[in-house]
Amino acid sequence: MSRPANARVTNRPPQIVMSGSKIKNGGGERSRRLRRLTQAYLTPLSTLKPGHNENSLNRADHIYNLTQKLILRYQSATTGLFPRYSTDKDAGYVKDSIFCAWACWASSIAYKRLDDDRGRHTELKQTAVKTMRGILFCWMQQIEKLNKFKDNNSPDYALHCRFDLQTGLEIETSFQHLQMDVVALYILALVEMTAGGIQIIYTQHEVSFLQNLVFYIERTYRTPDFGLWERGSRYNTGVPELHASSLGLVKAALEAVNGFNAYGPLGTSASVIYVDIDGHNRNRTTFETILPRESNSKNTDAGLLIAIGWPAFATHDQALFDKTLNKIFRHLEGRFGIRRYLRDGYKTEIEDTTRRHSTEEETYTFRNIESQFPMFFAFITISAIYKGNTTLADRYWQKFESLMVPGDYSGLMTCPECYCIDEECMDRERASPNSQEFYAVNPIEFGHHLFSNAVYLVALLMRDRLIHPSDLDPIYRHLPASQRPKFVNRHSAFQGSMEGDPVVQIALIAESARLQGRLATYGISTQTPHEIEPVQIWPSWRMVKVFEALGKDDRLNLSGRPPRPFGPLNTSKILRVCGMTVLCYPLLFEMTDFYTNADPATLIEDVKRDIEFVAKRWKLAGRPTFCMVLRDENVVPEYFEHLLDLLVAFKTGYINGIRVRIGRIHQLLNTGCIEHVDFVNIDDVEFDRTIFEEIDATAAHLKSKSSMRPIPTEQDLITEAELSIYDDHALFQIITEHNIDHLRNLAFAISVMINRYTRYFTVAGETLESRLERVYRQACQWRLWWTVRYCAAKLQKTITSLAPGITNLLVRGKRVVIGSKNSQEITISAPLTPTEIARAIFRSADPLDPHATVFQQELIIACADIVLQKPDAFNGILAIRLVWLKEAMQLLLDYFRESSQDGFDRKRKIVDVTSLIESSCPNAVAKQLRVLPDASVYDLPPTVVRDLLRALLIKKNWHLLTPLQIRRLNGALNRVPINLYDRVWRVLERASDGIIIANQKLAKIPTFKVMTPHELTFSYKIEAMMGEIAHPEYRQLVVELLCIIATIAERNPELPFYEAIDCDGLIKQAFGTFCDEKGIEDREDFTPFYLSDDGATTRTYLIKALMDRLLKDNLPRKFSFLGDNAAADLITDNRSDDTCHVQ
User: In this protein, which residues make up the domain named Phosphorylase b kinase regulatory subunit alpha/beta C-terminal (predicted)?
Assistant: First the structure.
């Protein structure tokens, strides 16, 4: 294998103290040593290239010898682990060991194809088995950590990623072990090898442990980790973040292991592995959303090559694959390999290796001098072979071969870990990237890198055609699911066997024969639980209880599956449980769930949404079956027409463009997706939920009468403040009477008593909590939404899907700000567990506004739904500030009331907001709002809340609003022009003393050292500064001022800003001028300035203030002054190619 003359191989000094500054002592001598070329060392390069091997046996023997010298001789005889470097005798690394096992297995396959393998096939195969079982043994010593991690995804409970090389015990020194990609890589390799004929799992205890490894990675979509490079964010400060590479490997592992038999094709049903397909779908969605980025701080990363190509093949979307790959080429490819990520200091001469973590400012010194890794050329070669792109494979294999170096003095050619640049050449390389020579890290001095050489061996085997691509990927992950061979499997597995969306089967179950007869009069055929026997209808939480036995092992002290709720994909399976056939209805039909399900209109919309979601996300063999439960309380007169429209649409075969089929359950069983639950004895399960049973005619009649009871009007209300001065006896009397005609007074009385005592205090034999729960249920039945939300807040109700909802927003670059202005606001910038989210919401609650705690949960779920359906609705919104979002909705309500009043002053330019709401919102929202003329947002049904939010975010028909209305709404929504953050970055480049926003100064240095214009961190910084502003109107003035400054700077490129750009001072100066001209004496109240009807006039005052400030600097030049006619152009940029900095 030849090398170009310009690729230098030198000896690095064994010990270099690295820092951001020049090496002061002996720097010149060390640099000379780095550059010194030993002629005797280089002589073999031109003579030791292996000759052409005539036959496959000779080529296999050559690679066997390479495997022995590069890999096998360094394996621990006791644990089977491999070190990172051949000279390391202490630590074995899981990730490196997996790839070494992969190389050994690949080499064994080459001999399996030969007639005379001389026992080498078995030797190499068993070496891989030893490694995989060694990793399994090491992790099985950490079962206590595994159990804790399933409940709390904390780095403290992460499975370790390195162990003592000889004993397999934990290494006590600190290390960033939380690497979801490593566990996923192990599962993927185990499935591939088992499918290839290797036996790795021996006992049922090991099967249970493997199942728990699946539980470990299922929530990766909300588990920030340290990633493939063990460093977390780009700044290497010990902060984890969500990584697309980790998500891609987890997605691939979950798809591979679902329905997989750990014992191989001869295993029993007891050794089958199950996957939560809703968890898989969330990982998949999050992965595809983040791509082509790697994370918030990393614009791209070489680790994505492992995720989108071999071995994971996590995406088969060719456009997304090409976009990600081209981004890696564009930003990371160098002459000597692929950089891991931008500003990576690993193995550079100026990195301080005495410290585990860096400072954020340090990363600036690594710009354009990052080490380059030839190994990734081999990864590209392997992936290109699988893709059938021989041109790309040949090109990168030639590049890879040219970078090989001798691994010892005999001339053994190896792949160096990386190429680095001499410190003396760094400034020239920064100024002109790829202009300087890099040297290889000397494998003779430091030991060769086993990971790199394992990948080299796999690529060599494939290039020499000693193994076929399907040999290394027997489960055919390199093919789309629809093109893979079909295997007979009694357990659900990812098949994707059909083109387009599948048909969703719908089973309509009526809770009583009375309801069944009522629906039959309209031609709607349903079944009762009695008619479908022996098939049973279960609530999903009952099935969750069954699955708690999955993976449980008392002898290993494994706790089994955590009590995670079943999503709509899991409930679309038909389950065989111990001889019983069971259908589970979705969470949205649960009676004990959040109050939004008590709104029939919301229930109808959720049904449509879930059916569409299941159809688009279903990837299993067989059709999904949606079990729709119909209760008497759902069929209320005012919503019955809408429900009937939905059921009739089902009969037509289409709903929202999705194909559906209504049928009798016994017919649907033949075409549905069947999941066999063989791991539990049903008699051993202690259920806390009953099955769905038919109610008799008397009970149905009573339920119907109660739902038809006239809803009392809430009159003679006593406020909570007034009740708080009542004595205990008076409150006891109100509580014990339990007058449901005054539910709000009753709720207030119970709440006051809870504040005085506790929720567990007993009144007349019943706890206060239980009594408040009864009030809550009655208010839900009557749909008294203000009281419902009040009781839900006092009971601290939470929505089950909060964590996935927030994650959907976070992975799209949004941040969620919860809390209130009068208490505290908490910014959620990383995924949290449901418990952590609920704790944050209720901890930040305003005692004077209890409704906000549950109303903000409604907004989170509604925003998550909208961002999935209309991602562009959030363009320009980086932080979703929930308290302001509520204020924006209240503003829209106020505008609606003003426009609905008879004889209001049209000269105030308040446009007919009724037209906007009617055209933007379905479900006759305007008609419902007229029924509630004085309602606050807390009085609105959940469906109306969603529709108003959609009208705000989608901005349909906003031309009907005045400039003042648009300004106030944009300020409350935190919406900015889509390219604002990019423009502020360019302004900061010319602002010598930085920018001041809300009394916070953003200095040019160190901002430019810490951040880059290609990442989200700068946008988050600007948004965090504006987040300190207390009023939406003032925030919008700041946004408009920044746009004005950016426009003037762009039109005057030679204009410098010598002093700090003080946005607060400029707005105050503009307001002062406004007051002078309008004769306003009060200079503290900005309200007249905010409420100026003519937005261009306000901008004119801002322009004047800015120009006055610039002219005071006595700059000897002329400026492009912009008057009233051009003021609007400062805010609106019509260039279609501008995109939001939030990608």
Answer: 964-1070
* Predicted confidence (pLDDT) at residue 853 exceeds the cutoff of 50: yes
pLDDT tens column, 1050-1085? 888 888 788 889 999 999 999 998 888 888 888 888
Report the distance separating Cα 600 and Cα 598, nearest Å.
6
Rounded Cα gap, residues 607 and 596, in angstroms: 13
Q: Please list, in sequence order, all residues whose beta carbon lies within 8 angstroms of the beta carbon of residue 997, skipping any fewer than 6 positions away.
A: 1022, 1025, 1026, 1038, 1063, 1064
Is residue 84 within 8 A of residue 449, CB to CB? The reply is: yes
Q: Of 645, 668, 695, 661, which is closest to residue 514 (Cα–Cα)?
A: 695
3-class DSSP state for residue 996?
Answer: strand
Confidence of residue 38 (pLDDT cuts 50, 70, 90): very low
Query: Which of 159, 123, 116 has the alpha carbon at shortest distance from 139?
Result: 159
> Mean pLDDT over residues 500-512, rounded?
89
| Pair of tokens at residue 238 | 């010990």
Structure tokens at 1041: 């001022």
Q: Hey, CA dihedral for 176, 181, 186, 187, is it positive or negative?
A: positive
What pLDDT, on a 0 to 100 scale, did the predictor assign at position 1095?
A: 52
Q: What are the φ/ψ torsions at residue 561 (nearest 5 degrees)?
A: -70, 130
Lookup result for tokens 């202005």: 821
Residue spans of beta strands (DSSP E) within 654-779: 654-655, 658-662, 674-677, 762-763, 766-767
Q: Given this model, what pLDDT does residue 302 score?
A: 97
Phi, psi of 17 (to 5 degrees): -85, 115
The Cα 935–Cα 890 span in angstroms is 10
Please state, in angstroms and rounded to a whole number, the distance separating the CA atoms of residues 599 and 721: 29
> Who has greater pLDDT, 689 or 1036?
1036
**d(C-alpha 1137, C-alpha 505), whole Å:** 43
Rounded distance, CA 1118 to CA 1126, Å?
18
Measured CA to CA, the distance from residue 303 to residue 322 in angstroms comes to 15
Rounded Cα–Cα distance for residues 35 and 30 (Å): 9
User: What's the pLDDT at 428?
Assistant: 94
- Residue 923 corresponds to which amino acid? N
Among the residues of 432-569, which ranges form H helices?
Answer: 443-446, 450-463, 469-472, 513-520, 540-547
DSSP at 261: B
Query: Which CA distances in Å does 415 have to 396, 399, 454, 457, 881?
Result: 14, 12, 9, 10, 51
pLDDT digits (tens, 9 = 90+) for 977-1015: 888 899 999 999 888 889 999 999 999 888 888 888 777
Mapped onto helix, strand or coil, the DSSP state of residue 538 is strand
CA within 13 Å, CB half, 710: 4
Q: Are 109 and 63 in contact (CB under 8 A)?
A: no
Q: Which helix (H) or strand (E) holds 728?
A: helix 728-737
Q: Is pLDDT of 638 > 80?
A: no
CB 18 within 8 A of CB 353: yes
Q: What is the pTM of this model?
A: 0.87
Cβ neighbours of residue 836 under 8 Å, at least 6 residues apart?
none
> DSSP string spanning 61-118?
HHHHHHHHHHTGGGS-TTT----SBTT--SEEEHHHHHHHHHHHHHHHHHHHTSS--T
Q: What pLDDT, on the 0 to 100 scale, is given for residue 817?
A: 92
Residues 6+ positions from 783 with CB-CB distance below 8 Å = 598, 599, 711, 941
Q: β-strands 625-630, 504-510: how paired?
A: parallel
Domains of the chain are 54-471 (1.50.10.10), 504-703 (no CATH), 798-901+910-961 (no CATH), 975-1113 (no CATH)
- For the segment 786-803, the average pLDDT, to the nearest whole number, is 91
**Is 858:850 a contact under the CB 8 Å cutoff?**
no
